[in-house]
């Protein structure tokens, strides 16, 4: 038994092709039931526990304990808040619940600034689970979630195909599917799409993403940093990194969505040809969509609602720009407490505010501004480069350059 | 003024387009006429002028995407 256990392949989600082999075999009973329009609730719960054990057991068992503690913590907060909310609706209890729900994430991000070791609370995917937990508290506040069945909430939080990096699903959407499995016709369609997504995902992540990220990037970085091709090398690094990031993350997202489909869950898609966007706002409707929609719905729009209703700013334009800076600053901090993530956020906020100003200007001077294939092409070209530059900031490349610069000069 | 007229007036003043009154099945988001900011303004005005409260998280673009859909939603919330 212990020998068998030591040979057991503990893998993070979609880490290696072998993960898919196990997935393919164990998914079969669930697929057959779904083809008949049924959902094997108990078996799917077993699958979740099995795959979570695979990713959070063995060498990662510390993370497994942290995950369990995290889920219990969030259950306590949500269950208490939903009970409170049935009889009262004070803002202070809402904000307290949000704070407590965010607390594990805050600690995981802040503690490493003071200690060398990884906090005991850490587990892979903690920040994505936080999006789900906070969302539920907000919808309880809005009266959209009136009762919280703990079993549903647990399944929503630890749904294994999306546990490590999303896409971030919505609670009401997920639970509706949990209780109303897709019809057999609908499932045939999902099955086809799901398999297709997984195959495309392999191409994106294991082939294109691998070649760009693990093979090309180090060579280009070396040329740029050590061999004197600073400008051209950096430019090459910017393009390569941008495409690497897209193929790696879009590939992962396709796995997550594809496997969800096989389980009869229509997890939202995360990428929709982001590099053909004609402006930054369109880009955020196509890039890491479940994250940007989360920020749109739960941060930007809520904040704007308060700002506009209470007339905090005379000008709606100012209010909107404040909202964008708040959104992207939070997004930057969420990525990590590092200067380049925060600059990345501020850069995007500035771009969006400029885009809005340009859109307003264009509306006023409709007749004078040409709009044709060439201007559309130019917009896409400019947007693409603004985005790639922001991703270069995000990559930490400038951090590497600065550190090198200072070590040579001291 | 009927609910329908009020909703259309609000939409017109937010979007600055009179098309919203003529083409009731136009997709406001696909056409780029309404965005997040416009949506929030819409929700605030619905609350001020019609006393209809729509939580931001209730707002789903696929159910609130055209002028007609918005009118229907408001009417059903009033009922």
From TrEMBL, chain A:
Its EC number(s): 2.3.1.-
Domain of life: Bacteria
InterPro entries in UniProt: Ac/AlaTfrase_AlgI/DltB (IPR024194), DltB (IPR024024), MB_O-acyltransferase (IPR051085), MBOAT_fam (IPR004299)
GO MF terms held by the record: acyltransferase activity
Subcellular location: Cell membrane
Alphabetical GO biological process terms: lipoteichoic acid biosynthetic process
Membrane topology label: Multi-pass membrane protein
GO cellular component, one term: plasma membrane
UniProt entry keywords in alphabetical sequence: Acyltransferase, Cell membrane, Membrane, Transferase, Transmembrane, Transmembrane helix
Enzyme's top EC category: transferase
Function field: O-acyltransferase that catalyzes D-alanylation of both teichoic acid and lipoteichoic acid (LTA). D-alanylation of LTA plays an important role in modulating the properties of the cell wall in Gram-positive bacteria, influencing the net charge of the cell wall. Catalyzes D-alanylation from DltC carrier protein.
Listed NCBIfam families: LTA_dltB (TIGR04091)
Designated name of the protein: Teichoic acid D-alanyltransferase
Native source species: Vagococcus elongatus
TrEMBL record, chain B:
Pathway annotation from the record: Cell wall biogenesis; lipoteichoic acid biosynthesis
Main location as per UniProt: cytoplasm
Family annotation (HAMAP family): DltC
Keyword ATP-binding included in the entry's annotation: no
Subcellular location: Cytoplasm
Gene Ontology terms for molecular function: D-alanyl carrier activity; ligase activity
Gene Ontology biological process terms from the UniProt entry: cell wall organization; lipoteichoic acid biosynthetic process
UniProt xrefs under NCBIfam families: dltC (TIGR01688), PRK05087.1 (NF003464)
Listed name of the protein: D-alanyl carrier protein
UniProt cross-references to Pfam families, sorted A to Z: PP-binding (PF00550)
Post-translational events: 4'-phosphopantetheine is transferred from CoA to a specific serine of apo-DCP.
GO cellular-component term (any): cytoplasm
Superkingdom field: Bacteria
Coiled coil: none
Membership in a protein family: Belongs to the DltC family.
Keyword Cell wall biogenesis/degradation attributed: yes
Family matches, as InterPro entries: ACP-like_sf, DltC, PP-bd_ACP
């Amino acid at each position: 038994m212990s020998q068998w256990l030591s040979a057991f392949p503990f893998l993070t989600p979609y880490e290696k092709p072998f993960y898919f082999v196990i997935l393919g075999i164990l998914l079969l009973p669930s697929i057959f039931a779904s083809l008949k329009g049924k959902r094997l609730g108990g078996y799917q719960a077993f699958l979740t526990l099995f795959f979570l054990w695979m990713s959070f057991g063995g060498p990662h068992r510390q993370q497994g304990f942290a995950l369990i503690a995290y889920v219990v913590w969030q259950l306590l907060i949500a269950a208490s808040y939903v009970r409170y909310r049935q009889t009262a609706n004070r803002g202070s209890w809402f904000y307290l619940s949000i704070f407590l729900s965010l607390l594990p994430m805050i600690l995981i991000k802040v503690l490493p600034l003071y200690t060398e070791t990884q906090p005991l609370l850490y587990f892979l995917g903690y920040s994505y689970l936080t999006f789900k937990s906070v969302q539920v508290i907000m919808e309880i506040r809005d009266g959209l979630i009136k009762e919280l069945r703990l079993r549903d909430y647990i399944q929503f939080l630890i749904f294994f195909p999306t546990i490590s990096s999303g896409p971030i699903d919505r609670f009401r959407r997920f639970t509706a599917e949990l209780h109303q499995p897709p019809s057999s016709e609908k499932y045939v369609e999902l099955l086809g799409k799901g398999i297709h997504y997984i195959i495309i995902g392999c191409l994106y992540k294991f082939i294109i993403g691998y070649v760009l990220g693990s093979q090309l990037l180090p060579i280009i970085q070396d040329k740029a940093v050590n061999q004197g091709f600073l400008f051209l090398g950096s430019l090459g690094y910017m393009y390569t990194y941008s495409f690497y990031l897209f193929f790696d993350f879009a590939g992962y997202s396709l796995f997550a969505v594809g496997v969800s489909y096989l389980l009869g869950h229509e997890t939202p898609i995360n990428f929709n040809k982001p590099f053909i966007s004609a402006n930054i706002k369109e880009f955020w409707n196509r890039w890491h969509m479940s994250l940007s929609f989360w920020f749109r719905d739960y941060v930007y729009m809520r904040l704007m609602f308060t700002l506009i209703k209470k007339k905090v700013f005379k000008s709606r334009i100012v209010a909107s720009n404040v909202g964008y800076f708040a959104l992207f600053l939070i997004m930057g901090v969420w990525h990590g407490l590092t200067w380049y993530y925060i600059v990345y956020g501020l850069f995007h906020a500035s771009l969006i505010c400029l885009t809005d100003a340009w859109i307003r200007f264009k509306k006023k001077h409709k007749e004078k501004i040409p709009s044709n294939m060439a201007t559309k092409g130019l917009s896409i070209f400019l947007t693409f480069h603004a985005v790639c530059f922001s991703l270069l900031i995000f990559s930490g490349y400038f951090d590497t350059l600065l550190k090198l610069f200072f070590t040579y000069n001291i | 003024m009927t609910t329908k007229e009020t909703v259309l007036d609000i939409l017109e003043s937010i979007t600055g387009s009179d098309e919203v009154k003529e083409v009731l099945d136009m997709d406001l988001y696909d056409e780029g006429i309404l965005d997040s900011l416009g949506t929030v303004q819409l929700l605030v005005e619905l609350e001020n002028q019609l006393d209809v409260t729509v939580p931001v998280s209730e707002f789903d673009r696929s159910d609130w995407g055209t002028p007609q859909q918005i009118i229907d939603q408001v009417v059903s919330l009033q009922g």
